[in-house]
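Hi there. Long-time user, first ticket. I'm pasting a complex I've been working with (about 618 residues overall). I'd like to know whether the download I got is complete or cut off, because the file seemed smaller than I expected. Thanks.
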Amino acid sequence: MFSVNGITFSYNCKPVLKDVSFSIGEGEMCSILGNNGAGKSTLLKCLLGILAPREGAVLLDEKDFSRFSRMEKACCVSYVAQREKENPRLNVFDAVLMGRRPHINWAASEKDLEVVSEVLEALSLGNLSMRYLDELSGGELQKVVITRALAQEPRIMLLDEPTSNLDLKNQMDVMRTVDTAVRERGISALMAIHDVNLALRFSDKFMLLKDGVMLDCGGPEVITKSNMEEVYGVRVAIEVRENRKIVIPLEAA
Amino acid sequence: MSCEHENLQGAGTRESALQRYHGYTQKKVLVITGIAAATLLLGVISMGLGSVNISPLDVLKALVGQADQRTAQIVINIRLIRVIAAMVAGIGLGVSGCIMQGVLLNPLASDFTLGISQGAAFGAAVAIVAAGAGSVQSTGADAVIINNPYTVTAAAFIGAFSATLGILLLARFKGIDPEAMILAGIAFGFLFQACTVIVQYFANDVQVASIVFWTFGDIGRASWQELAFMALLILPVSVFFMFNRWNYNTLESGDDIAGSLGVNVSRTRAIGMFLAALVSSVTVAFLGIVAFIGLVSPHVMRRVIGGDYRYLIPGSCVMGALLLLAADTVSRTIIAPIVLPVGAITSFLGAPLFIYLLVKGYRRT
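Hi, the file is complete. Here it is re-exported in full:
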């Protein structure tokens, strides 16, 4: 159980997050929706411990996360960024093995190697394991990065727009990968994402962020016409297809 | 029963993936060991070459004290120190280039692009002119000698290291990122070059000759004490780098990812830069400017065994040693009895090699 109580953060006195509170349970996927500059990435970095919030607390099982050491944090939380700058001359196995960094003291143990090969198999990347990263497509590379975040064996995964720069098929592939991992491994996922419909398809929970303020948080019921228009500043229509809500942008409000 | 069978199969494929990985890492270890062995072999051959040619077998005999006195004299007292100096300096330059390129995320990072070599030349120039540390001998191949090597070495070190300190201070207090750090290094390099030109302009003929001579890197310059000093610095620093090899791997994925893997990014970067610059400053201060070893060694190894710092760090060490020893052997023998400056040979071999690596690209396919 990961909970955030009244986080406030500012860059050089310019407030970016104002009193944000929510929580995520195990096996739950939550999407953060909001425009550019709404504070999505900042929120993720506060949870990651890279940025320290001015007020409020992040709690993991009721324990103050800011008290954790760097390595303890890294054993609980993993991070997937949108555009990965990766070492081109690393092979897939080694790139995923890097996720074991917080668990390794001097050398990778046999257990570390087994975790890596297990995760690679689970995400059907086993046949790529000896390829160099500069020989992969964008979609494959993003899956490798997600595999690494899973090899870290975290309690919660934070993802910052994992599907931007990917084509439609790879967007679905990557989201399904995250979805399967979350359900099967019982970890939580918190994801900043621009594509509302992709979020609607895979998430259990939605958090609406506008100018650093949380407008609403909850299940698919919070995806309403008025909420969407408020968050994105765009007129929308909401339809239901195959029991799923679909948000259709109409024109700028 | 069928379920059990499936499990076995699953375990089987996983094991084969693991086995493939073990094979892959063993191959890297084999390559590094092979290069190390080649370096030692070249060392033995190199000790046999010179004004008196000695067969490799006799060299080995001399090393274990089984040769006649004259052979032993030449091998142990004259040529051994040179070969060991080339290996030690090559290790230092190779490993420091590898770490600089890693922490600055820039394949062009080296003692040249960070102003270290230019700083050393400026420091040496000031010492030669201001402290009167240079003079000219009239005869022999080594026409110019440095009267007061300790002053020159110390001044060269201060010059070499000041550029890096400047960069680190900028990073610490102005928060400049790795890309800006290398640009700052290039700027420092030009500044030192300009300062050296001004010093040379006001120096007399002998002093200018001494300055120019100093900048030609020369492996034969180091004494046993200096060599021991270099080795005692380079060895523990290399071990420290190996302790941080996982951290350097994470830095390549960007600061946020490195941070999310529990790495203290700014500290890893600052300490890595500091120690890498320390090693190459000391090497340059003792031996003069030896171009391209720090740049090319990690590049060659990235191509051969990949960019994993667990293997790239030792790989750059052995490749640096091999390249510098080869260059020094060529410089001693190509137009013997004249000994060419090794810095010229390394540039001569290094520049085309570097261009070849660039043109060939990193893609295997």
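A couple of notes from our side: Residues 131 and 151 of chain B are 8 Å apart (CA to CA). Chain B has 14 helices and two strands.
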